[in-house]
Amino acid sequence: MKKPSERQQMILSFIEEFIEEHDFPPTIRDIQYGCDISSTSVVSYNLDRLKESGLLNRHSEVSRGLSLAGQSHRNSSAEPVSIDTVAVPLLGTIAAGSPFPMPENDTWSDLTGQELIDLPQAIIGPGTGIYALKVRGESMIDALISDGDLVIMEQTSVVRNGQMAAVRIKSENTTTLKHYYSEGPRTRLEPANTQMEAMTFRSDDVEVLSKVVAVWRYLG
Amino acid sequence: MKKPSERQQMILSFIEEFIEEHDFPPTIRDIQYGCDISSTSVVSYNLDRLKESGLLNRHSEVSRGLSLAGQSHRNSSAEPVSIDTVAVPLLGTIAAGSPFPMPENDTWSDLTGQELIDLPQAIIGPGTGIYALKVRGESMIDALISDGDLVIMEQTSVVRNGQMAAVRIKSENTTTLKHYYSEGPRTRLEPANTQMEAMTFRSDDVEVLSKVVAVWRYLG
DNA sequence: ATACTTTCCGAACATTAGTGCGGATATTAT
DNA sequence: ATAATATCCGCACTAATGTTCGGAAAGTAT
Asked: Are residues B109 and B42 in the same domain?
């Protein structure tokens, strides 16, 4: 069995990620565009090679009739170690204009059933009231957070100067993620992106909802 | 949310078994014959009902564009006690103008002694040749990456369109992180920050060093 | 019963998506 | 170089597959 060519490896990983994202396999044309291949026949040709190599199952005349054969090539470079992890509930999404998702104060425990995300204790830190949000849209772009990012939040009403927090401007009824600077009667909110400008508000017009503990952006 | 009808339940379980057996979803006609339904339109109708109930994901005008909504995770019976993690070596820092750090090809093994970072296997994915870099300075600001961020890289020389990668412009001898789009003889490099403008280069002037797998920003 | 909603039927229709083929380019072996 | 093989390219063709629509049946509420 020959080693698959570079293009074939790219196709293979494209299929893998496509399935991961969509839960169904790609079409030949999906692969064509995704891997920047000039013709469907080239894709078909390489799929046949991959099938010969036993790396792929292909059913002819069946749309999306692909599945990965070498299913379990687990971790190859490192030994799996078990470490302490915390299960963080994914509470929802942030999007422009939408109310900011927060854990209900009545029952923090009924989060069971929500989707959970395992994160290593070490990188989360010791905080409590941790939850995660998925970002939708580019509304947080000035906080260097883009569509699809996962934001790890910690519920709190006080933050130190300079920390990034979800703050609500009462008078405008808007919520965004900004760096927070309390300056006596005024509060300055500064985007993470230094190319954007800061704004100041009356301190009693600003309400801190949660602080940002971490941002995770998975691109694959 | 109403309870699905008998026929809808049958369709749902058929889809489940079909995927179990084939690793890809059925067509409307597969369902039609499998559930002994007289018309494709009836299947389509009930699929819409199931989608409304939130039990099924359906993508219109996509063949086999079905997936079960209920199960978010593959493994159904595993206990979430300990998770697999990989130790990722922290190879160095990225800064403006500095040569891009890469693992030495001679000895991948002498990374011992380097600082290691434990990351969950699940969020890293199955890739090999993974390493991490710490960002210094704001040189990557247009890729939505700021000072102190941890960038998880995977060594590769080929990336697909749309992926973020570390690319080197040979003629300028510079290296940056950009979204990569191959367009035949030209290659377009697009910042993650949509407020910045894309640039195009001759394809043979662009060398792909690594692709960005993930970005981790810890703020605490 | 009457009206209203849900579900079903069939059959044509429109896209989507896999295949085939002649010939051009690479790549490798002799 | 020459030949042999592996890949790639467009493009047309066709099978696979989702959609639409008028109308019939079945089920529910008034």
From this structure: no
